[in-house]
Structures are given as C-alpha cells and as structure tokens.
Amino acid sequence: DTGVSQDPRHKITKRGQNVTFRCDPISEHNRLYWYRQTLGQGPEFLTYFQNEAQLEKSRLLSDRFSAERPKGSFSTLEIQRTEQGDSAMYLCASRDQLRTYFGPGTRLLVL
Amino acid sequence: GQQLNQSPQSMFIQEGEDVSMNCTSSSIFNTWLWYKQEPGEGPVLLIALYKAGELTSNGRLTAQFGITRKDSFLNISASIPSDVGIYFCAGQTGTASKLTFGTGTRLQVTL
Question: Can you give the pLDDT at residue B1?
Fold first, then answer.
C-alpha cells in the first residue's frame, strides 16, 4: 500500500497526558498537512510542511500542540496536557502537484 | 474555523436514483475538490476541478466548478448501496494549497 499511513489508528488517554501521533506520507510528496475533524464536521486545517519546514499554522493549533517533520519524510503531532476538547480525528495528508491525499486518521478520545 | 455551506445536510434515496449536492462559499477558490468519507476512515478524493466552468466526470460522478469560483456541485447517477457515506466539498487556495471543507452531505441508499 503506497498511500498515506497513520499510527496509531485509535488512542484513548486520560486528561492531562501527552500523546504523539505519526504520519508517513506518500513517498514522493514533499508537502504534508495535519487536519482535525470533530464529530459531524468537515476536516479543519491545522498545519503544513514543505519538506522539513513548517510553513503555516492555524489558530486552532494551541501552544499545547507541536508538529515536526525532522527529515522531510514522516511527521509527528504531539499534544501535551490533553483536554477533553482535544477528542477528535486527526488526519494527515500529503500532496503532489495537483491533489491532496488523506490518511485513515488517528481517532483520539480524551477521558 | 471556516466551513463551506454544503447542502443538503443528508439524503435518503432509493437505489437507482440520481443524487445532487452543492457547495457554496463567500470566498473564491482556485480549485474545488469532492471527497467521500466512510466511518472511521479518512476522506477519499473523488473528483478535482481546476478551472471555472469546468465539468468533470468520474464514472457515475459528475462535478462542476462554478463560473463565479464560489460554488460547485456533485451529481451521482444511478446510486448503488456502496455510495453510502459522507460527501465533502473542499475549496483550495493559497500557496499552501490548504483545503477548506464543507459541512458534509450524508448519503443513505436504500434497496
């Protein structure tokens, strides 16, 4: 399978804990995106990388969120001191010249 | 965050019927995309539109990029049970090529 992959697919954590998600984009894509999707809504943009450089961050990305793409390949999204409002599906996407392709998402539940 | 206006919100149709849904925005986009999402999965790209007025087909799916660049519609002909899911429009703009999604149309197909 050469699509976008994400790990884990599901995560349940207690409020206050830190969580980290991983995304492996399609190998030749140099653009990588993180989106968040809450129940009943469409995905919302969080942040964007071109190679290893993080070029844009949404206001949705609070100080507790940090994303990295150290070698311009896979990316991680960390949420520190999780809150119940962080419960959502976190989607990673990568892009070729024309189109954006999404991974299966990591569903986070904060208890 | 901003979400595009998508209608209808949900549709219940019989197998074999045609379906039409649309998406409007107060902003101009230079690309419109239509995605389908099934429970627990990420959005899957169905059709991409790159020029105002463009009409594009993908099998039983037909989509158009509105002349004003502020709207798009998607038609599904002769629906089948596997068409069930949530359909999202997305507008793309800017150097980051980030996507702004609609609120989704939930499609149910009955036999």
Answer: 62
Give pLDDT tens digits for B1-35.
Answer: 678 999 999 999 999 999 999 999 999 999 999 99
CA-based nearest distance A103→chain B, Å: 6
CA distances from A84 to A61, A102, B84 (A): 15, 25, 30
Burial A91-109 (b: 16+ CB within 10 A, else e): bbbbbeeeebbbbbbbbbe
Q: Which residue of B has its CA nearest to A96?
A: B97
In this prediction, residue B94 carries a pLDDT of: 81
Instruction: Give the pair of three-digit tokens for residue B85.
Output: 């899911």
3-state secondary structure of A84: helix
Q: How far A49 CA lies from chain B's nearest CA (Å)?
A: 9
On average, the pLDDT of chain A sits at: 94
Residue A104: cis peptide before it, omega within 30 degrees of 0: no
